[in-house]
Amino acid sequence: MTVAAASGEDRALIERFLEMMAAEAGAARNTLAAYGRDLAGASESLGGRLGSADATTLRRLGEEWLPLARSSVARKSSALRRFFAFLAEEGLREDDPSDALPRPGAARALPRTLDHNDVDRLFAEIARRLSLDRSGPNLRLAALIELLYGSGLRATELVSLPRHLIRRDQPYLILRGKGGRERLVPVSEKARAAVAEYAATLPKDGAYLFPSGKTGHLSRVRLFQLLRSLAADAGISPERVSPHVLRHAFATHLLEGGADLRALQTMLGHADIATTQIYTHVDSRRLVELVNQRHPLADPGRK
Length: 303
Fold this sequence. Notes:
By secondary structure, this protein is mainly alpha-helical.
């Protein structure tokens, strides 16, 4: 990731910031490169609107960093804080929204999630669209959402899936995720059916399941836009919905259904189970009921 990956307006702002860091702060070349990568990555995630991002947007960006190591979150937050402080000092914007970014060393806030009714409304809207037009774009959306919620894929993993990785006769796929680690990802029958119907509309020699342009694949930004549009049509506030929120709903609803935390760790591709524990904010009433029903002391016949 280089500064060139940012959009035109963001690229100019980032380059001005890096020039200041080199001239006034005496930042080393490696430091400048790291700042450049983090800022360009944030710009890409926000669709080229980093320089004009508000606090709500930065808070959402911080939620997308939750699966990362705290050191990575701290580095990214530091880069963006200095960037926005520079913009304010130079009069390039009137405010500094960076207080909304995660604080290095602070406990991670729980990401937002959707309840079962919200998820049902998303799928009902997809069904409505398909009933009116069962063409490529709607079939693609159905496949995307089935995989996001049904398999807990990361946004980047989803949009870059190889064309023939998912097979109708195989209820799982082997995915290479962060750090080159391979993991087993479940694929439901509904997801496989949705993918099969959508894939039938694609050229057979394509490299990606969700292609875009001549040789590329769907971008994370476009996925985010499609999901927010779907949420709005389903009567759900678009601010509540993102690819990460659906991944979180996948994990939360599995835990509510009795899934084992270690199994969930494997499915999500977390190197450390401490990361998976972020997803354990199950309804406290259910936990109390579980103890009352399952713990030996709850047995009225026990002496």
